[in-house]
Amino acid sequence: MKKTKYIFVTGGVTSSLGKGIISSSLAKLLQGRGFSVTIQKLDPYINIDPGTLNPYEHGECFVTEDGAETDLDLGHYERFSNTPTSQANNVTTGRIYQSVINKERKGEYLGSTVQVVPHITDEIKRCVQLLGHTGKYDFVITEIGGTVGDIESLPFVEAIRQMRWEMGQDSVVIHLTLVPYLSAAQELKTKPTQHSVKMLQEQGVQPDIIVCRCEKHLSQSIKSKIALFCNVEKTSVIECIDADSIYDVPILMMDEGLDKEVLRKTNTPISEKVDIENWKNFLHHLHNPKHDITVGLVGKYVELKDAYKSIREALIHGGVANETKVHIKSIHSEEITRENAKDKLAGLDGILVAPGFGNRGVEGKINAVEYARVNKIPFMGICLGMQCAVVEFARNVLGYADAHSREMNSDTKHPVIDIMAEQKNIVNMGGTMRLGAYPCRVSEDSNLYKAYGETMISERHRHRYEFNNEYLEEFKKHGMKVTGINPDTNLVEVVEVEDHPWYVASQYHPEYKSTVAKPHPMFVGFVKAMLEYHDKNTK
Ligand code: GLN
């Protein structure tokens, strides 16, 4: 049983400073020094989870092995640390209150008045320590969403204050701030950092380490100034300069000594060596690609950079595995018609049709699949992207002009995608989809098998609709093969078409399992197919 130490990461000045990347980078470095680490995100909003939030609000919803719908930062945690997360790694204010209210209804508070302090803060502390109490981790990194000073984050900061007081040197607080550069004055400004640290101090928390996001290097005198005014040691002022890639950040943090500072502050022996060679190797290939290709990402949220986060990252990983830079051309699905598909999609080395919900942009996705199928362009469809592939095939090959998914047209005579039986009577929207990891059997005569090299795989899901098996034989007869199937339920997981270089569409989401250490085989295979297509077309 390990003695767990706790690292809290707060943020000040503005949102979007990259607390998730700092936490992930620190985890990577601590792992490199032989420690076991997990990262947790506390989100101060009242939704029970982000599953009901639309991507405009919250970017992508990440899904864990155990089927939790979580904040997209958990995707970064997994991609950096190559360790799966779970429901316990993402807790919202809504979940905290729900659990306290449930206990109150059961009479567990024995007649006392239930209050923010101590009951809500105790529940927050319980959720933080839950991971530590598994005995599996040397360090639990807990990232607090939002910005210090927000009304919503007050109970979380109070819980940290109490844990710091209780745990002493078994805990450490890292505060991430912004040190802006004013070009008119040609100076970096420390005042916002000073103010945000003051705000944290007013709430009873003295940060141990301050990580400063900046676009220009911090001079020694700026570091000294921040140290003096924020009451931290000078070695605890860490520069975090803008990087070309998020994957550069662990190395930047290592050079600045963030991991050593954490170990020193928590009285943990510091080993000389950090095993980070594989990471450096990945960075070498990332920054020195031998080939360039362009994939079209077809979706209805393409203007949002975080909406398809895991897909974008998985394409980077698949690219690095092929020593290839994958350029992503975002194509709005609402804008693709059968007539303009050629113009919109010309010159691409591959087409990826994204997941989604609801009718908007679906016809464009179907048109994009048709273009990829007919012109034999490497194609990958994910979840709704796979369902669109099935609908397209039913319409244009089987000849059912009105074929559709029941989600989009409840009256269609040919519901080739239908609601899953267990979904029919569900009324609550939150947390009720088919979620998380399920097994899938892979047929050997397929591109899918070529990618995985395995006949049994497990992948994560997030959907309510499925391939309608009543049409299975007809699809097979006309050249659409089912190459992945759930062995327990016969649910279709993957379809491919014959006589096509790479047409692989899955009901599951492969992107959630791609990491730096283990690029996902389907993305590796897709990039390889795009490279081959590219080479053939440029010769
Ligand atoms: N809307 C589809 C379903 O619920 C697809 C979901 C998705 O793409 N994640 O089945």
Strand content: 15-25%
Record the strand order, biggest sheet: 13-12-14-15-23-22-21-18-19
Give the overall pLDDT as a whole number: 96
Helical percentage: 25-40%
Distance between the termini: 60 Å
SS elements, strand count: 23
List the ligand species: glutamine
Q: Biggest sheet, open or closed, and with what strands and sense?
A: 9 strands, mixed
How would you classify the helix and strand content by structural class?
Answer: alpha/beta
Pick out the low-confidence regions.
none
Rounded to the nearest angstrom, the radius of gyration is 25 Å
Coarse morphology: globular
Number of helices, counting only DSSP H or I runs of 4 residues or more: 18
Summed up:
With 539 residues, the chain is α/β, with parallel strands linked by helices. It has 18 helices and 23 strands. The protein is globular, with a radius of gyration of 25 Å.
Tell me what you see in this structure.
The chain is α/β, with parallel strands linked by helices. Helices cover 36% and strands 22% of the residues. The chain contains 18 helices and 23 strands. The strands form 5 sheets. A 9-stranded mixed sheet has the order 13-12-14-15-23-22-21-18-19, with helices on both faces. Helix 1 packs parallel to helix 3 (73-81), helix 5 packs across helix 6 and helix 12 crosses helix 18. The longest helix has 18 residues, at 521-538. It is globular. The structure holds glutamine. Residues 355-357, 383-384, 387, 407, 462-465 line the site of glutamine.
